[in-house]
Amino acid sequence: MAAAGPAIAVAGLRRDYGDRPALEGVGFELPAGETLLVLGPNGAGKTTLLRILATLLRPSGGEARVLGCSLPREAWKLRGRIGYLGHEPLLYRDLSGRENLRFQARLHGLRGEPAEARIAELLAAAGMERRADERVAELSAGMRQRLAICRCVLHEPDLLLLDEPDSNLDAEGRELARGLIGPGVGRTRVLVTHDPERFLPEADRVLRLGIGETAVVS
Amino acid sequence: MTPSRLAFAAILGKDLRSELRTLQSLPAMALFAVTAFVIFRFGLDRTSLSGSLAAGVLWATLLFAAVLGINRLFVAEREEGGFDAIRLAPIDRSVLFAAKVAALLVYLLALELVAVPIFALFFLSSAAALGPLIAVLLLADLGLAATGTLISSMAVNSRARDLLVPLVLLPLVVPMMIAATGATEPLMALGGPSYHRFGSWLMVLGLYDLIFGLVGYAVFDFLLED
Known about the structure:
The structure holds 2 protein chains of 2 kinds. Chain A is α/β, with parallel strands linked by helices. Helices cover 30% and strands 25% of the residues of chain A. Chain A has helices at residues 46-53, 75-78, 97-107, 112-125, 141-153, 171-181, 196-199, and strands at 8-17, 20-30, 35-39, 61-66, 69-71, 82-85, 159-163, 188-192, 205-208, 216-217. Chain A has a 6-stranded mixed sheet, with helices on both faces. The longest helix of chain A is centred in the middle third of the chain and has 14 residues, at 112-125. Chain A is globular and about 45 Å long. In chain B, 80% of the residues lie in helices and 0% in strands. In chain B, α3 packs across α9 (174-187) and α9 (174-187) packs antiparallel against α10. The A-B interface holds A 54-58, 79-80, 82, 84, 86, 88-95, 99, 103-104, 106-109, 111, 135, 151 and B 1-3, 6-7, 9-11, 13-14, 17-18, 21-22, 76, 80-82, 84-91, 225-226.
């Protein structure tokens, strides 16, 4: 389903945790297919912004439209259209990588041969075929991140929300991840990073968040 | 939206597979129940029980054993990000409630498969009560699973989870326990089972199941919000 207007339009977005504002007065627009790089120091609200856009947090104020849906009122319409890669891999430790992906596939309505084919394709693309049947608890942090990237794109989302996607990845992992969530995949992306040097060349726009400062888009 | 049956089967299958692989809840529940029966046997210094005492010993033991499983019901979702994964999926969140109720129901039935025969061996002079007891167990399990799932989902985000579950759950299940022991007492009467007010107590259990099933279905979506 194509969204009319920009893929994301945010104005005056605010989120408070109790009395403490975590995000204040954030506004930007992101056309479909472009990449927004979100920069800022620890505590500036980068992860909070991403979780609001992913419908995992309710904003305390302001307006946000994602893929044509107003948040939080129409959040239910967005579920299944977002690929979210956060600090946690969202994988069950006692299941294998393949079992985790199969579980995610079923939650997104995929099953049977198409699901198995998609899972095999992603495991190959992430270089995880040989370790796919080991329990996640037995995998290294980098391997878990590769699986988390597979989980994030398994259902072919329209929008990718990526929080430090290179975390724990080695050089080979970063290169493989590029093939799955990099600029060439043609999806709208919001990318949070502490490594602007690496991701600036991929960005169409940059949002700088500061603690107690107005967000700046460039 | 993903068909609810597919999501339900996925979540239930994931929970049962994890439990079979790690055995984090069921062995503890069964071991607790068996230990409690041993303590009752020697503490009461009786080789057979009947009537209200038998019903009380059985249901108090099953309830406290169930609390161990209820405490852990949402731990994987909380600690491994499962809540977020499920909230990002195009599924009705009440499916998670239904799947967790079903998983807890399976745990309770497995617990009773071990605990009830041992209870009968320790305390009952005849096995005649066990047949009709199945109906009481099933209805009480349904209510306990619905209430336990609801309370567990509320408590799992608290650091005092292990305290919160029994503190909130136990008062809520008092009506169910009264009905369960009320239905069980005549079944274990001296001289063999009687069915005095058995049907009435079963209806009370059914009503309890219906109320807490509906309450859970209605409020669960709200409980998953940030």
